[in-house]
Amino acid sequence: MSWLDFFRGQRKEPPTATAAKERLQIVLAHERIGRTREDFLPKLQQELVAVVARYVSIDPGKVNVNLDRGGDMSTLAIEIELPAPSAMRVVAQAR
Amino acid sequence: MAQVVVVTSGKGGVGKTTSSAAFATGLAQRGKKTVVIDFDVGLRNLDLIMGVERRVVFDIVNVISGEARLNQALIRDKRVDTLSILPASQTRDKDALTREGVQKIIDELSKDFDYILCDSPAGIEKGALLALYFADQAIVVTNPEVSSVRDSDRILGVLQSRSKRSEEKRDPVKEHLLVTRFDPARVERGEMLKLEDIREILSIPLLGVIPESESVLRASNTGTPVIMDGESNAGQAYADAVARFLGEEKPHRFIETEKKGLLKRLFGGRAA
């Protein structure tokens, strides 16, 4: 940027270094926790699917796990596609 | 059948991940179904450069060990809908990758994607060897600097002797040279290797020249592949390289110094 930009007024875009710092703080905070304990997500997913499968026959391929790590809060969304009601009844009768 | 493309260099820090992110995004922007895989197990960074680090749930090691399915580990890009990312594991070591495991993943991805980009780790150890093993094409990222050129030559040797294609005595891996961090002004002052010198030494076809550019750091700060910065020289140079990769003829740009007038010398800025 030349000194003339000073007179051109506002920069076109905000500086990006702040974004870099914030992103690093969030990702590192999560990774440091992860270092001291085992990654629980695979096991959590398996157990959840097992619990649901006790009641409904589900396709393990139709389980989606979505995570959004944040600074103050993270969201974990687990989406399990259930079969049509007819299929659910079959499991219920089988028990 | 998908094309498997490895982005490799031997040397670290030359721009493999930046180039993988830019190339994958560029191919996807042109409507090609593209997935980019981070092979740097233990030191993943592609997720940061792609800006998806907050959404990583499962990774390539989870898939290989059967803890997650491939479609659960794939992260779909929110900017370009034909683009997906398969992250590396951050906690495991490189031994968690196996040739059979990677083979299965590539076979499965081949059904759904046009291009599978493999972002190689530096070095010529297990991770790098696995990243290039299945390649049909290789993009060799090289800086105009002696150690980088030497390591590129070394990795070309590895491609010719240790890839699946070479082991099966099929047509060799198609090699492309991508010169990054090129500074024409320093070449003019005789401080940097010339493009012709690098081409002469490595003697593989030149895919593109990416100029040294401030936009690359800005892009990594925000997690936006630099090819999405269409105003920057680097972004445009990557877009040209992607076009050439897809068979278009494009003259090389940003390889000579911009002739600056007096006014621009006084008031003009630096490389965009």
Automatic annotation (TrEMBL), chain A:
Coiled coil residues, start to end: none
Keywords, alphabetical: Cell cycle, Cell division
Molecular function via GO: identical protein binding
InterPro entries cross-referenced by the UniProt entry: MinE, MinE_sf
GO annotation terms (biological process): cell division; regulation of division septum assembly
Function: Prevents the cell division inhibition by proteins MinC and MinD at internal division sites while permitting inhibition at polar sites. This ensures cell division at the proper site by restricting the formation of a division septum at the midpoint of the long axis of the cell.
Family (UniProt): Belongs to the MinE family.
Protein's name in the database: Cell division topological specificity factor
Source species of the chain: Neoroseomonas soli
Automatic annotation (TrEMBL), chain B:
Classification via PANTHER family: SEPTUM SITE-DETERMINING PROTEIN MIND HOMOLOG, CHLOROPLASTIC, SEPTUM SITE-DETERMINING PROTEIN MIND HOMOLOG, CHLOROPLASTIC-RELATED
GO function term, MF aspect, one: ATP binding
Binding sites annotated in the UniProt record for ATP: K11, G12, G13, V14, G15, K16, T17, T18
Entry GO CC: cytoplasmic side of plasma membrane; cytosol
Alphabetized InterPro entries for the sequence: CobQ/CobB/MinD/ParA_Nub-bd_dom, MinD, MinD_FleN, P-loop_NTPase, ParA/MinD_ATPase
Family label: Belongs to the ParA family. MinD subfamily.
Location of the CobQ/CobB/MinD/ParA nucleotide binding domain: 5-226
Name of the featured protein: Septum site-determining protein MinD
Gene Ontology BP annotations: division septum assembly; negative regulation of cell division
Described function: ATPase required for the correct placement of the division site. Cell division inhibitors MinC and MinD act in concert to form an inhibitor capable of blocking formation of the polar Z ring septums. Rapidly oscillates between the poles of the cell to destabilize FtsZ filaments that have formed before they mature into polar Z rings.
A matching Pfam family: CbiA
Origin superkingdom: Bacteria
Subunit description: Interacts with MinC and FtsZ.
CDD domains: MinD (cd02036)
Keyword ATP-binding: yes
UniProt keywords, alphabetically: ATP-binding, Cell cycle, Cell division, Nucleotide-binding, Septation
The keyword Nucleotide-binding appears for this protein: yes
Taxonomic lineage from the root: Bacteria, Pseudomonadati, Pseudomonadota, Alphaproteobacteria, Acetobacterales
Coiled-coil regions listed: none
